[in-house]
Amino acid sequence: MKLVLASNNAGKLAELQALFAPLGVELVRQGELGIPEAPEPHRTFVENALVKARHAARVSGLPAVADDAGLCVEAFGGLPGVDTAFYATRFGYEKGDDNNVRALLEQLTDVSDRRAALVSTLVALRNADDPEPLVATGRAPGLITREPLGKNGFGFDPVMFLPEFGKTFAELPTEVKNAHSHRGRAARQMLALMRERWFALPAEARP
To answer: Where is substrate annotated to bind (predicted)?
Structure first.
């Protein structure tokens, strides 16, 4: 089964492709099909993911899956949230992972409450007009470090410290990160939903 991934982020594609492999699902980035990015006007992850999935499904004519994810910092009242990708631009930096990390650490310099969570919401649609979208959410709580640590991953992985491992996401092997990341947790929920709703055999066909 081929699904359009409503994103052009290579990191997301690699993570989700590995996580969806057990279902025999092939993910194709929307850019490879000439699909432009959809606007993301909403203030919640689930609303933006739904908009992106519907857009990709409508243009491609294929089932689609979209991920909207971000960092929710306790000291900032849950922000930057849906604005995570553009966080650095609020402080005069160009958009980009490294600048996002730099801006975050600068804003937290004198803040003692380092609690934060990476949150991922996945939405999957059989078609653009699917009235029953599959929705899965994963949350990975941790603490923001004082400096980047580790070379794996992308985004805020180098500064998201996980107390249960004593390491940041960027210091963990890929398979461990995928098992415990916000996106990994959401993907496991989504796999269960897809098995139940999209791939389950009808009762008369079961042995």
So the answer is: 7-12, 69, 154-157, 177, 182-183
